[in-house]
Amino acid sequence: MRRRNLLAAGAAFFAAGCSKIGKTDWFGAIVDSATSWHKFSHRAIGSLPLAPEYDRADVSPFFRGNGSQTVDTDAYRAALESGFADWTLKVSGMVDRELDLSLDMLKALPQRTQVTRHDCVEGWSAIGEWTGPQLGTILDMAGIRSDARFVLFRCADTLNGAEYYESVDMADAMHPQTIVAHALNGEALPERNGAPLRVRIERQLGYKSAKYLTGVEVVDTLEGIGGGEGGYWEDRGYQWYAGI
Ligand SMILES: Nc1nc2c(c(=O)[nH]1)N[C@H]1C(S)=C(S)[C@@H](COP(=O)(O)O)O[C@H]1N2
Ligand SMILES: [Mo]
């Protein structure tokens, strides 16, 4: 089933104009992906609980922005004005092949839509409908090396002069509800909610769901990255595994 989805994704991917990897590489990637998926499947499929999902009718009328509500650079302003035509998500680190995925490529992959509740550690919640490809699909395309342990999320914004970043383990990275969202409530992601891309980590507190996503980096240690605790807020004393 998954294999068939990936094949369909492959066709759509080429239709979207992938210039970075050739056709042969792509079919190699599909074969490899079965392997990379299996490596984590004993934890990721079936064994991990899903976060509750809600009905479209439960969606909050307004999904507030929190933390950074924009990226304060000329480059971001220009990107926003161009409809993020040149925005890419870079997939790098301990992968068999690095990827540079445009928004069109990400939208051409199989999509997941989920209505979930976002819980911020500051004591507010909101329900939203998020759409995007599963991070697992993207990681399968890149091919994760067997010694990889974490997936790092790189963001365009800074808070108090420091780059915002986050990280999850492989089980949460491959979790079916972990998606790279480009839409909220059926519309392109608003600026305040992380346009054009944000990750959704549905079983953990809001600060894990990194906005203004520019890169996904596969690593085997969190040491030496930022303050070494695995995320912007973690470096400031919050828990790395912020389960809800
Ligand atoms: N890049 C980035 N991602 C971020 C933040 C941020 O400041 N920068 N804030 C986090 C926090 S604390 C929360 S609660 C949510 C807020 O998401 P929202 O703005 O869509 O409500 O984003 C999280 N992701
Ligand atoms: Mo938050």
Task: Annotate the secondary structure layout.
Elements lengths: L1 H14 L7 H22 L29 H8 L6 E6 L5 E4 H6 L3 E9 L3 E9 L2 H8 L7 E10 L2 E8 H4 L5 E3 L1 E2 L2 E2 L9 E3 L12 E7 L25
Parallel strand pairs: 1-11
Antiparallel strand pairs: 1-2, 3-4, 4-8, 5-6, 5-11, 7-10, 8-9
Helix pairs in contact: 1-2, 2-5
The structure holds the ligand Nc1nc2c(c(=O)[nH]1)N[C@H]1C(S)=C(S)[C@@H](COP(=O)(O)O)O[C@H]1N2 and molybdenum atom (MO).
Description:
Helix content is 25%, strand content 26%. The protein has 244 residues and is an alpha+beta fold. The protein has a 5-stranded mixed beta sheet with strand order 2-1-11-5-6. Strand 8 (183-184) and strand 9 form a beta hairpin. The model is unreliable at 1-7, 10-35 and 41-45 (pLDDT under 50). Bound molecules: ligand MTE and molybdenum atom. The ligand Nc1nc2c(c(=O)[nH]1)N[C@H]1C(S)=C(S)[C@@H](COP(=O)(O)O)O[C@H]1N2 binds next to strand 5.
The unreliable regions are 1-7, 10-35, 41-45
Distance between the ends: 31 Å
Number of strands: 11
Please state how the strands of the largest beta sheet are arranged side by side.
2-1-11-5-6
Question: Helix count, per DSSP?
Answer: 6
Estimated structural class = alpha+beta
The general outline is globular
Helicity, as a percent range? 25-40%
CATH hierarchy, class = Alpha Beta
Number of domains: 1
Q: What is the name of the CATH topology?
A: Sulfite Oxidase, Chain A, domain 2
